[in-house]
Amino acid sequence: MVDRKIKNLKILMIAPLFPESFWSFKYLLKLIRKKAAFPPLGLLTVAAMLPSHWVKKLIDVNVEKLTNKDILWADYVFIGAMLVQQKAADEIIKRCKKLNRKIVAGGPLFTMEFKEYIDVVDHFVLNEAEITLPLFLKDLKMGTPDKIYQSNLFSDIKKTPVPLWELINLKKYASTSIQFSRGCPFFCDFCNVTTLFGRKIRQKTTDQIIAELDIIYERGHRDSVFFVDDNFIGSTVSLKKSLLPALIKWKENHKSISFYTETSINIADDEELMKQMNLAGFDQVFIGIETPSCLGLEESNKKQNRNRDLVSDIKKIQRNGIQVQAGFIVGFDSDTNSIFQQQIDFIQKSGIVTAMVGLLQAPPGTKLYDRLNLSNRLKKYISGDNSDGTTNIIPLTMNSDTLTDGYKHILKKIYSPKNYYKRIKTFLSEYKYESSKEGLSFSRFLIFLRSTFYLGIIGNERYYYWKLLIWTFTTRPKHFSMAVHLSILGFNFRKAVKKVVAKC
């Protein structure tokens, strides 16, 4: 028998606060007058899967305050979170329980750690919501919902609906997000992507992506769009034959939009792919470089990075009009004291301006976690932020203090004004991107003025700032806006890194 109470439910969806980190862009957001970097794509997608007649509200705590009035309004509170949001999610759960509201939880945090919340969360909708959410909704309709909904199956994302963008104000975000594929063909030792999404690449149709972009554009977004795929080039057949040609055509009437995503280093092996991505508007990619050490790559099963000239590959990508952002790791068992200077030298030589360096962590669901757990080499707490200077691993070959000191040394060196601005120049010397963005808008002009005040007048880096701008204006004038953008990013990263170093 159907429970009539659920016919017109009021659903509050809550995105917990992201802690300040390398990727939170706290100081950059202040300069550009935005509240958060990215919208909560997962919750917006789940919202689109709920019955259309239910009343839905989304509170992103990164953008606005969550009040008790909001919580009391709801019949059910849906919380989606990543591991890095755990502390904030805990606080929200406590508030909801105190106000006697039922909680439905999902996302990577709860999929991996639901046993920790078994006494405080009413219902878990785990793994991929396309599979488990309909089961929960069916039982809820009958008035007999279970505690836990799990599945080891992977969904057909060609059936995934367009996110419910009307639940948020896109103008409060610096960028927005879209997903083309799930899964990754590689099986890196420290990564839980394949546990969560599998190794088989699943892709949406080109029509789906264009429809989603049209809606984002119609809602007023005019800047960058992040393809959140863990490996955008995991399967390139339909990418090259269908999606990228369609994006190239779409860009003709949407010139202000740019794209960026995550890929593996083997993008450098496909000249045609890089050219297509450049024409489609992809101006940057994030790549997990991890380490210049062959032993570290072998130890971490980073097969795709082995037996390559990584610096040459990076410069090849840059010459094809795509900036490379990259992740680096120290703390592998094979690392020796020399790894710290090796990382610094590699980052400087490659011209990777945005270099995220972290201590090795072993998240649940990884081969590394399972192996170290058997060896009793894991600490209980893991932050989920691999750039905050913490690790849940007990080192084997290197003293903990030596590892921490070496890590801090890397951060201080690569984000010193001298080395950071030198990397921008190294990068721009290779970069070939011909920007198709519209002319300088009033808002961009204001951002330039604010950044010039903070960096060029009162900033400690003002000598390097003006030196870079003069060099760019006289030798690479087409890349002047990029030079300004990267300078602003440097301001953000130096502030963030200073806090990490002080905390370590």
Explain what you see.
By secondary structure, this protein is of the alpha/beta class. The protein has helices at residues 26-32, 41-49, 68-73, 86-98, 108-113, 129-142, 193-197, 206-218, 237-251, 271-280, 294-299, 310-319, 339-350, 367-374, 400-414, 417-430, 442-457, 462-475, 480-503, and strands at 10-15, 55-60, 76-80, 102-106, 123-125, 148-149, 176-178, 181-182, 202-203, 224-227, 258-263, 282-290, 323-330, 355-359. Helix 1 runs antiparallel to helix 19, helix 13 (339-350) packs parallel to helix 15 and helix 18 (462-475) packs antiparallel against helix 19. The longest helix is centred in the C-terminal third of the chain and has 24 residues, at 480-503.
Provide a compact summary of the structure.
The protein has 19 helices and 14 strands. It has 504 residues and is α/β, with parallel strands linked by helices. It starts with 9 loop residues before the first strand and ends with a helix.
Using the 3D structure, state the CATH architecture of the largest domain. Alpha-Beta Barrel
CATH topology of the largest domain: TIM Barrel
How would a crystallographer describe the biggest sheet?
Answer: 6 strands, parallel
Number of domains: 2
